[in-house]
Amino acid sequence: MYIDKAADYVGQVQTINGWVYNSRSSGRVAFVLVRDGSGIMQCVVAKGDVEESTFEAVRHLTQESSISITGTIHAEERAPGGHEMHVQKIEVHQAAMDYPITPKEHGVDFLMSNRHLWLRSKRQWAIMRIRATIVKSIRDYLDDNGFLLMDAPILSANACEGSSTLFSTDYFGIPAYLSQSGQLYNEATAMAFGRVYCFGPAFRAEKSKTRRHLTEFWMVEPEMAYCNWSQNCDVQEEFVTYIVQQVLEKRREELAIIERDTSPLEKIATPFPRISYDEAVKLLQQAGSPIQWGDDFGGDEETLISNQFERPVFVCSYPKSFKAFYMKTNPANPQTVLCADLLAPEGYGEIIGGGQREDDYTLLLERVRAEGLAEADYQWYLDLRKYGSVPHSGFGLGVERTVAWICKLPHVRETVPFPRLLEKIYP
């Protein structure tokens, strides 16, 4: 039996295969908390109900020992998960010795160095289950709304957003790079299938040491033909609202374990507010920021903006000077582009970047040359504007930043099983 299915087996004798999360004994009764990956169950061992050797073995169980434990399942609202086992038999597979992560406080560096074991803790268990629901919700929404999964390559011959943030490798004698984004390839598949998305790891070689940055992260990138930047925002707000609703519906227990106040999440509903970059600059200046028009926003600025709203907020029409070459120029103000970043509330900043792509061959070629990019490397991308070009838009949602916001975590290092940070690649 898996622990999360205990309600289906009340009154029956079942066996749990798992690990000792904690144990205590008092005289003639011992209590063993057993985890099996699906949940934690309190197992009650009464001295008169088992052999003396079994009771003694239970009293000496150590944290993270692997066991199979058999008994009758009972409803018990005071027990974790609302059920407990009255034990009849126990088999110890391995008695763990000197488990390094104990109930006392440990430093972050120690826990990160023992990430392979830290994942067994109740808090990390809850976060990973919430992450899994977020990932499933992402796929469900897109699959149910006409998007087709297209796998973009991880190895690429060119950069998506700038060569300075690429990890390079040798590809049979020619340089290749780990993908920053599947977007350029998505644009090709969108011209074949209309609505597509890719979902996988992305890599950024920026030497960023902040609570929001990983060097390897997961990103979902939808792309839509015949879609302008505003329609693109419509999809994003429906998408994010659906994800939050699914977590609230399916992960209440896990949210309670990490002590997440869900009231801010329950306010997430469409439509999301939309402000221009110009309005955002004024808002920041009124809050005391020295930001000037033409400056990019960092984490501090994003936090200041997002703290003004209870729902995610779009900041639209950033200056062309610091945005990617493929973004379409804003006809209302040629100094800006038709783009929008979605900032999560509660100070979490950007979780989505997106916008409309330049669909005119001549204008895109001018941008490629202006950026000093190798024209030959982007010939296939330019071809998309020669053969049936259409207005099209897309966006990328960072999974780890979304998990951090929904779980209200202080750092992205807890959002992925094995985080890759600037100075951390072990384990």
From TrEMBL:
Record has Lyase as a keyword: no
Cell compartment(s), UniProt: Cytoplasm
GO biological process, one term: asparaginyl-tRNA aminoacylation
Record flagged with keyword Ligase: yes
Keywords: Aminoacyl-tRNA synthetase, ATP-binding, Cytoplasm, Ligase, Nucleotide-binding, Protein biosynthesis
EC number: 6.1.1.22
Catalyzed reactions per annotation: tRNA(Asn) + L-asparagine + ATP = L-asparaginyl-tRNA(Asn) + AMP + diphosphate + H(+)
Pfam family, one: tRNA_anti-codon
Main localization category: cytoplasm
Molecular functions per Gene Ontology: asparagine-tRNA ligase activity; ATP binding; nucleic acid binding
Domain Aminoacyl-transfer RNA synthetases class-II family profile span(s) in chain numbering: 128-417
GO CC aspect terms: cytoplasm
Family: Belongs to the class-II aminoacyl-tRNA synthetase family.
PANTHER family, per database record: ASPARAGINE--TRNA LIGASE, MITOCHONDRIAL-RELATED, ASPARTYL/LYSYL-TRNA SYNTHETASE
Quaternary structure (record): Homodimer.
Name listed for the protein in its UniProt record: Asparagine--tRNA ligase
Organism, scientific name: Candidatus Cryosericum terrychapinii
Gene name per UniProt: asnS
